[in-house]
Amino acid sequence: MVAASASEELDVVIIGAGISGINASYRLQTMTKWQNYTVLEGRSEMGGTWSLFNYPGIRSDSDMYTLGFPFRPWLDAKGIASGEDILKYVKDTARETGVDKHIRYNHKVQRLDWNSETKRWTLYVNANGQEKTFTSRFVYSCAGYYSYDEGHNPELPGQDNFQGKLVHPQFWPKDLDYVDKKVVVVGSGATAITVVPAMAEKVKSITMLQRSPGYFLKLPRRDAVVELWKKILPSQAAHSFIRMRNAFRAYLLVWICKGFPSVARRVLRYLTAKELPPHIPLDPHFNPSYNPWDQRICLDPDGEFFASLRSGKANIATGHIDTITSNGIKLKDGSFLEADIIIAATGLKMTMAGGSQLYVDGKKKDIGQLYIYKGQMLEDVPNFGLCLGYTNASWTLGSDLASRYIARLINEMDKKGIDVVTPRCDHTTVNEKPLINLNSGYITRARKDLPKGGNKAPWYLRHSFFYDLLVVKFGSVLDSLELSAATRAQELTE
């Protein structure tokens, strides 16, 4: 990289211009006096996930009344939205709130250094091949939890033998021609059940190959009750009411699944059986080895996935890959799936803080060795926020609460004349627990890279929207934080 230019000084640097970064920026500029901020985005476009992913059928896996911004109503009639519509919504929100004027594109944060003497972060940034540096009082990482540079790419046995195209959904080739092709989608998560019905009408055949089955739940894209409320109530009131109602429904679903797993399992399998065509049996294809919500339940808007199975264009296979040949996949049970295209919907590679390196007074901090504080800060890391949403509900429900807490914290720092806040964990009283209570592959693979969760407050991730909402609005802001008096406030009193 080209040598760094003079450092620019800021109050706050927000990392990432996805849905979390836009939300955080709005909270910062409407709830605090710290208006000298910038958003550093490593890519050339805002939108995060909704800009990066371009595979057929890309859509939300949560309803937009909870995934969308609480301060800007989602007006589209479809609650489950396409990636294109979500990206437009994010861009429109950024423009209307003025957040877009604070975004710097192609600014990839490589390293963050905290200096206790200056009480500032220095950020080393790759801006189109040139190194830039920024200094900031506070850094708030809204870069999500997965790598934009690489997905999870397990070595499929014999994949070098394949003469067709091997595609990862995270890096979908825009010129991929799949008309009248034989396609096999390896995987059974949200991406797989989105791609299959989206491609089914144009391909010759498409098969979802799963190693282990999951749970599915059919939901309508349009909710008649929601539409009625939108006609009766003003736009913002309707949006807020629907948001709370849908958040409660999601919480209730998780509560039932966790509290009564055998009942939830029977109900979900019964609903699935009703959607299947006669030639596709419930077992083994829809007989998961785990309980509901040990992994996320895949939402099937309007039953599109099951409709593609009933059409005969799509199929499902359950088994382990023996080897990939020049023209398909041989399974260990001896069956063979012909393929011109193999789509490796094998998941994400998780990473924290956008993969940037974190240093405090010259000492590197391994995020995987640090306890998380209130789901949005890290122990022993001063003036640093980590924006994480929910995994058992809509992401934005949690990420917005994180940003509102950070805004309250900044206001409290101003009010009390505090320069530095550092979470300090008493390891003699806190026992480690998994940060995320799911056993999905992408989470179990990344356990060592995720912050540690504790068994008591405030050392765990947020998990219940309604409880967390009360804590963020009315709970203590400074508990378990080491505070350093503001230099400027000291100077004023001397």
UniProtKB/TrEMBL annotation:
Transmembrane segments: none annotated. The keyword NADP applies. Keywords: FAD, Flavoprotein, Monooxygenase, NADP, Oxidoreductase. Its cofactor is FAD. GO terms for molecular function: flavin adenine dinucleotide binding; N,N-dimethylaniline monooxygenase activity; NADP binding. InterPro entries: FAD-binding_MO (IPR051820), FAD/NAD-bd_sf (IPR036188), Flavin_mOase-like (IPR020946). This is Monooxygenase, flavin-binding family. It comes from Ceraceosorus guamensis.
